[in-house]
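Please produce the structure of this protein holding NAP.
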Amino acid sequence: MAAWPWTDVAITGASSGLGRALAETCAAPGVTLHLSGRDAARLAAAADTCRARGATVRDAVLDVTDAAATEAWLRACGRLDLVIANAGISGGTGGVTEPAAQAQRIFATNVTGVLNTALPAIEAMAAQPAGADGVRGRVAVIASIAAFVAAPGAPAYCASKSAVQRWAEALDGAERLRGVRLHAVCPGYIRTPMTAKNDFPMPFLMDAEEAARRTLRGIARGRLRVAYPLPLYLAARLVGALPPGLRNALFSGVPAKRVAE
Ligand SMILES: NC(=O)c1ccc[n+]([C@@H]2O[C@H](COP(=O)([O-])OP(=O)(O)OC[C@H]3O[C@@H](n4cnc5c(N)ncnc54)[C@H](OP(=O)(O)O)[C@@H]3O)[C@@H](O)[C@H]2O)c1
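Below is the modeled complex.
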């Protein structure tokens, strides 16, 4: 029996970390999962775990920066109750200037890649019948608590997460009128390959399974913003509200995230 109120779910970046944990947490008999990622071997391993839990799984190698391929993948999925635009990359400055190519890559994946996923999903959902709760479909974008802090150690990452968090929350105002809901998911630190290389303290670091459960619970409750854990979210809101000059001065003593390899 499915623990969540969705039978047809598509997830990008399901080959690793949070995306894989979301897939495994949704996996149950009667559920069809459409999983995508770039690494075929890791994606197949995630798909096998979900099948072992009783789900029907269709996995597809996909780069979300390819708009046409992402739209074609979504169209081939058919009816979807929930789409999670999770694929993302990170990278910091290493304490100096963020490399231009890294900043471009982060925006291409975390912003354009999310739009490439969410926009066709929203259009398809708007044309499908509503479920028992009156909702035609849900699109969740995985932003971050980093959306609320312009951290000098990770400029492109913070900006990319802020962009998709604000975009999803603003768009929900109109889309809910035609029965489609958006959710901006803003997690704190999660133990995944993305954070494995961080050599600075990560307060309230949580397992990917815990983050997946909190994400899905928030979406199931209809929350527009799903931000957790609360203490880190409140701290980020507080720091984010400081005058920018003061905030940057405070951050000057904080180690920066490393440049992505
Ligand atoms: N870890 C954290 O503390 C944390 C906190 C807040 C938010 N988040 C967000 O959560 C999401 C998942 O991150 P994670 O921590 O699970 O990292 P991760 O383990 O590195 O996984 C990232 C996933 O995104 C996929 N991906 C990256 N670029 C892609 C592209 N161009 N096309 C398709 N798939 C692509 C990767 O696929 P391949 O490996 O197959 O290439 C992988 O499946 C990201 O959006 C991240 O920003 C993470």
